[in-house]
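Sanity check

After download, print the first record. It should look like this:
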Amino acid sequence: MTTADLLARRERALGAGAQLFYEHPLTIVRGEGVWLYDADSRRYLDMYNNVPCVGHAHPAVVEAMSRQQAALNTHNRYLHEGIVAFAERLIALHESPAIESVVFACTGTEAVEIALRMARFATGKRGVVGTNATYHGNSELVSALTRTETPRDPNLRTFPFPQSYRPPTDAGAYLAALDAAVADLDRDGAGLAALIVCPIFANEGLPDVPVGFMAAAAERARAAGGLVIADEVQAGYGRTGRWWGYELAGFTPDIVVTGKPMGAGLPLSAAAASRLLVEGFRAATRYFNTFSSSPLQAAVGMAVLDVIEAEGLVANAGAVGAALKQALKARIDASPFIGDVRGAGLFLGIEMVADKAGKAPDRARAVWLVNRLKDLGFLTSNAGAAGNVVKIRPPLTFSHAHVRAFLAAWDEAVAELR
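Expected structure tokens:
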């Protein structure tokens, strides 16, 4: 079957408009480690997918999934030691004593919504503040925060995401905008229930954040009576070379949301907080999710943590990511269209601009590069507030050898840029 035939069938079955990557979409049939294989058995180095954080089809994860499914999988209204043990282990990964209990779910959207509701129940307020170029999920409540200057929900407010690449470059300007958003919520009677951020501002384009911003922002949110939610779906689980993005950003959250990488392909997410916050949420909602807190989730979640620790993947992300970032920064001068290289660990962004003096975002060149890299066998994507940032986010098993292979392809693609 041709790609065109499959695409036509897809649009009939799913409806036209379901998103696909690349000008000429790929038909992917298999994954192994950091590699994906198409229907013609061509392999591509996966530099985008954080879901299989320990690599595609890791044998230990596959074995744990198979073994548990063969033994037992049911809803969570029975006692099961594996679920408790996994929750305890996840909580122990946080150094903060404020993280004591966890609510499991299946998707990042669900976990973020749990976190927002938890904050609202705890504070008695309704207002939520995020940045103007963020993404936290797809439900009606959560999606109202997505990439918007004026949120659709009257209880939501946004402020410009902090960055050092374009003015303003000092923390004060962004803190003033945050204060204004909180004051607006107070005037409207909603008050501040929560400030929610991805600690590394992943969807905003991985900006270098002005020094001290996040610590000061968290302090201001709490002074206004709100809680601080760290959305670690992209930033956590060793991605930055630290277990959590909030460690890198220099603040302590009240609620931590995790998702995709937890199950390495099995739907699994969580909202972790103090026991007081979690029990307040449970008392107010009697929350139940048929497929969360399951024995299968616990077994797979444990296997993922085992692999990360046994293979030293947090340290690997830090070391390999630093080498890749340094090499890419050294190449900034190689092209008039490469404006900046940012990020930490194995999550980097390369900002494409029309010219370095004006710094005007150049989405077209970013898209061209992503498609050219795909043709060369390397899968990336474009992201950021203007869609002009080449996004690099491979499995945590990415190695120095993979870095060398990618840099050769990058140099070839950049040399062709016009």
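If your output differs, re-run the checksum step. Summary of this record's structure: The CA atoms of residues 27 and 88 lie 40 Å apart.
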